[in-house]
Write a structure and sequence with these properties.
single chain; 137 residues; mainly alpha; 5 helices; 76% helix; 0% strand; elongated
Length: 137
């Protein structure tokens, strides 16, 4: 297995695991009281968004400028904020999961050379800047 395929597999695994978290979130929503239903709903639908982001990164790791950075920024922010919360229920477990996501996303980024997505975007921009007809007359 090549490094690229391994990195894509890591990102695909994260997409699938996020769908699993979505399924668990549906269960949590079904039993949530009025004081928790909104946050459980918000969290549950966020799993679908992250599953989609991870799937995009597995599919097009070097053609997704900004997606890597969004995932890293969000998950890192959650971990750093979690460090400030002390003994808040759920904080430690969520922080540990998100720290693992940061680590595995970094592994996927490195294996797939995800940093090249900005170079690809620049090449595409240069190509569209040319003043040439799309179809030869």
């Amino acid at each position: 297995m090549t490094r690229d395929k391994l990195g894509r597999a890591v990102m695909l695994l994260l997409a699938v695991l996020s769908l699993g978290a979505f399924a668990d979130g549906l269960r949590r929503m079904a039993v949530a009281g009025s004081d928790r239903i909104w946050i459980e709903t918000w969290r549950t639908f966020a799993y679908v968004v992250f599953s989609g982001l991870f799937a995009i990164l597995a599919w097009r790791p070097r053609q997704s400028p900004g997606i890597w950075e969004l995932v890293f920024a969000h998950k890192t922010a959650v971990v750093l904020y979690g460090l400030t919360l002390g003994d808040v229920p759920e904080a430690r477990a969520a922080m540990a999961v998100d720290a693992l996501l940061v680590l595995l996303t970094a592994v996927g980024w490195g294996l797939t050379r995800g940093w090249k997505s900005w170079q690809t975007a620049q090449v595409l921009q240069l190509d569209t800047d040319r003043s040439r007809p799309l179809v030869d007359p």
